[in-house]
Design brief:
Elements lengths: L17 H8 L14 H8 L1 H8 L1 E6 L4 H14 L4 E4 L11 E3 L2 E2 L2 H18 L5 H15 L4 E5 L16 E4 L7 H4 L3 H8 L8 E4 L6 H9 L3 E4 L4 E5 L4 E6 L3 E5 L5 H13 L6 H10 L7 E5 L2 E5 L5 H25 L10 E5 L7 H9 L5 E7 L9 H8 L8 E4 L2 H11 L5 E5 L2 H11 L2
Parallel strand pairs: 1-5, 1-6, 2-5, 6-7, 7-8, 13-17, 14-15, 14-17, 15-16
Antiparallel strand pairs: 2-3, 3-4, 9-10, 10-11, 12-13
Length: 452
């Protein structure tokens, strides 16, 4: 790493707080999202992160519409369990920014982030360029991984693939979890355009795991052009749900009966396929250990708090809701059976689902609500509020869609997630299940309201 000078006096410095740095980086570029790598590459070269990844690390890069967080978490946990010093980069975060940058499963400290931000800022000024918040923070994460001399880097793409800042690093193994309609303003409004962007993470001759049975022609074209070796779910590997404790994974070489993780089996199977297809030495004991310990806040995340049962999931588009429902329907039946067994009195009210819900205004709220209400779940009431975020859907927008599917008397509107969270506690019974979904920001604010 080059020995960089002190930051510009107008910038925060090593004595500044993490909050001061994050606030500053949100203000120095004209837009929050600015697709393209031309401004990022010179700064990355000045920091030495591109060469460090190429020379010293094995890199997994994960793109896709849904499931990136779970997939990266499982890959990282398996590599860590096998003894590799493992870097994990994910976004966005739920509660603390530090969640985005982990080394061997541990969030890096505020001071580690601040030192990296200061170095990125110096390099940015030396290159006379402006960078977005995501570009600055991603470069800082990559710098931290390089300086920590990590053996394995597991990188989650933020948006798309081809033009995302994570794509400055050449992966040794790529994963594309699935292709769905999301971020249409940036990626296109059809799966072919979106697939083309996500296939932009491929490199010549590498392997790629594709985690859906349906592949757009644009992704297949990218695979062919790069002469990549593709492992596709349903064709080259598969999984089978055996019980609440076990599942079975199969490919052409092995069949494994494994402990069931707390995350989606589809995403877990994709992650396992990527690890098995890599040259890394990850044995069955490391795999089993990782599946028993891996967890990810906000992904089918069950907790008990304030004498209530809570399920948090960041599902924020139609495909994400499908992932949620695939796990929620059997989980709900188990919950009902458990509550009725604990309360055998005939006078006990059967459990109901209370929905704590909010979304961003640029998402397809109608399709999400339509799918949730058509699933046959006994959702008795909806508690809605506007997220504290610039792109948040207003309560009027949310309510105008909800009334198309449910009785208006079942919709309760609040001026913030904290008020809505307190209200759903008051309106629910101990045997009920409170489902919180719609956005990372919805989950983050609800968890903060509960002090979790």
């Amino acid at each position: 790493m080059s020995d960089l000078l002190a930051p510009n006096p107008s910038s925060p410095n090593n004595e500044s707080s993490l909050t001061e740095w994050l606030d500053y980086m949100q203000q120095i570029h004209v837009s929050a999202i600015d697709m393209g790598l031309s401004r990022v590459f010179p700064v990355a070269e000045a920091l030495g992160v591109v060469q460090s990844a190429k020379d010293d690390a094995y890199v997994f890069t994960v793109a896709g519409t849904n499931g990136k967080g779970s997939t990266t978490a499982v890959i990282a946990e398996m590599c860590k369990a096998a003894g590799y010093k493992t870097a994990l980069y994910q976004s966005p975060h739920l509660s603390a920014f530090n969640e985005r940058v982990r080394v061997n499963g541990e969030m890096v400290s505020d001071q580690t982030l601040i030192a990296a931000f200061a170095k990125v800022e110096v390099a940015r000024l030396q290159c006379d360029l402006t960078l977005s918040f995501f570009e600055m923070t991603t470069l800082a994460a990559l710098l931290i991984f390089a300086e920590a001399d990590c053996d394995v880097w597991v990188l989650e793409v933020g948006l798309g693939g081809r033009l995302d800042v994570v794509n400055i690093i050449d992966p040794d193994m790529a994963v594309i979890t699935n292709i769905g309609i999301d971020h249409v303003d940036w990626l296109g409004d059809n799966v072919e355009d979106i697939g083309r962007e996500k296939a932009g993470i491929l490199r010549n001759g590498i392997s790629v795991v594709y985690g859906s049975s349906e592949m757009p022609d644009s992704v297949q074209h990218g695979i062919n052009t790069q002469q990549a070796t593709c492992y596709q779910i349903g064709r080259d590997f598969s999984y089978r749900d055996i019980s609440s404790d076990t599942w079975q994974y199969s490919n052409a070489a092995v069949t494994l009966q494994l402990p069931r993780p707390a995350l989606s089996l589809t995403n877990t199977a994709n992650a396992l396929s990527a690890v098995l297809a890599s040259p890394l030495d990850v044995d069955i004991h490391a795999i089993e250990q990782a599946l028993q310990t891996v967890k990810l806040a906000g992904r089918f995340d069950y907790r008990e708090s304030r004498s209530r049962h809570w399920l948090f999931d960041v599902a924020h588009n139609e495909q994400g809701v499908e992932f949620l429902l695939a796990q929620l329907l059997p989980f709900w039946q188990q919950h009902v059976d458990s509550q009725l067994n604990q309360n055998s009195s005939a006078t006990v009210t059967p459990p109901k689902i209370k929905m704590l819900f909010s979304m961003l205004g640029d998402k397809d709220i109608d399709k999400v609500v339509q799918r949730l209400t058509a699933a046959g779940l006994p959702i008795s009431e909806w508690f809605i509020a506007e997220i504290d975020y610039p792109r948040a859907a207003s309560t009027q927008q949310l309510q105008s869609i909800l009334v198309n599917y449910i009785d208006s008397d079942a919709i309760h509107v609040f001026d913030g997630l904290k008020s809505a969270t307190n209200a759903v506690i008051e309106a629910s019974q101990a045997q009920d299940l409170i489902v919180v979904c719609g956005s990372f920001h919805t989950i983050g604010e609800a968890l903060a309201a509960l002090g979790l």
